[in-house]
Fold these 2 entries.
Entry 1:
Amino acid sequence: MIYLDNAATTQIDSDVLDAMLPYLKGSFGNSQSQHAFGRTAADAVLNARDKIAKLLGCRSEELYFVSGGTEANNTALKGICLAKGSGHILVSAIEHPSMIESAKDMAAQGFEVTFINPDENGVITPQTVESAIKEDTIFCAVMAANNETGVIQPVKEIGEICRKHKVFYFADCVQYAATNQLSVDFCDGLSISAHKLYGPKGAGLLYIKSGNKFSRLISGGMQERGFRGGTVNVAAVAGLSAAVEKAVKNQADEAEKIRKVKEHFVNRVLKEIHDTHLNGGGKILPSHANISFDGCDGENVLFALDLKGIAVSTGSACSAGAVNPSHVLTAMGLSPQRVKSAVRFSFGKHNTLSEADEAVEALKNIVSKIRSI
């Protein structure tokens, strides 16, 4: 099997799993319990929060452990809006479905929502953001890097514009964090998901800068300082912490390794398979390649590759099975055929040049057969 769908999820690292196991076995206590088992669990959560805060350059009390990027994105947008009560929301049209749908939920509650389209390269320009800001704009969401194309957004410039206009700026960093140095300097809030960092599923992080009021979405006990009820998944938090720490430590070397394999693959595909197009331009994550194959249906390419033991996708895993074409590629202004023929290849640190070559050879045969039908 060749796994080229690392944007959907990654294989958990053995040492990350090792960091989790103590809290699944002997130290299994509830972090809210007052006895020794509970204190051990609470210490693990405290240490994980402090460790990640140091790595991100923020205060521990600005971090909240959640179930993943989807919950973090929902909590940020809805939490800020509910605390404000009314206002105008800016959301890029290429956001993850969790942010797009959250914005639609708020529109149903009476908030005004503007979706900002990217340019033809998939970039949300700072100028477009600034021109869309109104006097009552309260929230802006532009992701750090897109999950379908891998296009990196000018988040520092967008953050400066939002700061100038006193607009809360949120950056979904779920895809970005695996291969890029991350800090909180440029934004008021961000999200991270462990399973995109070779960590466990069901573990995520929400950063909200101090001084910003937001309402909780999950009512219950006093977990996460009262902002997120429910028993804390201590093992998942330990895994998240270990995954973030490892990603930061090895980021530069692993990103370069991934880039070389991805670029080798892309160069061969574009050179050896005619009428193919790389979707997205400018700065792109070292891991992502979104490619359209003229005369093909992307799902047919996906299924044929799967039969050969090669895993890819046609877009966000959270949108799998959706009838509608990619909202990201559509917002970029690509033709319906180019959108329909797109396949996402996402590389990780375990992929090799020989795997890339095998995938190219399989693609050449598959595309040729599909086009001949």
Entry 2:
Amino acid sequence: MARYTGPVCRLCRVEQKKLMLKGNRCKSDKCPINKKRPAPGKDPKARAGKRSDYGIQLREKQKLKRIYGMQEKQFSLFFERALRMPGITGENLFVLLERRLDNVVYRLRFAVSRSQARQIVSHGHVLVNGKKVTIPSSLVKPEDEVSIAESSRNLTIVKDALREFGKSGVMPWLNLDPDAMKGKFLASPRRSDITDLGDIKEQMIVELYSK
């Protein structure tokens, strides 16, 4: 599957919003959003006029897709699955995205970014209920245990990432034992619980796909 290989900070500049794609760098003074750098392009002011409804909806979709590090086809498949689920489609989409294994690994502080979490999973460093899983997009279920393989517990990137646990803990739908490098996905979160993604308007994404 094709993936974006260009400069990651450019994506944040396009959206003029911190997407938290580079871990600790996003919290530092080096972040281009902190420096108030303009959107990329030769003449960003020429594109700064009033956006159409479609343009606003597209930007909301692009922001969410990029935050979770997904390609268009995969994101569309997740939306179609959310559409088939009972309940509110936008909220279902958030629940599915939060259940992705790479996201859970990131949320459990085993990685400093979702891209790093995908790498850890695909390289076979993560176990789900004691079994190795190498598919970052696989979905975690309530009460599933996610842990770092015993042979991988000396990885510097994991140890460094876990230091963040002491500063900010984990989300309320997760439980983490940092010493044992294992955690549990307690329950699927509600949309109101996901407070760190800013002002993403999921209804606009639903309207975009409904056209």
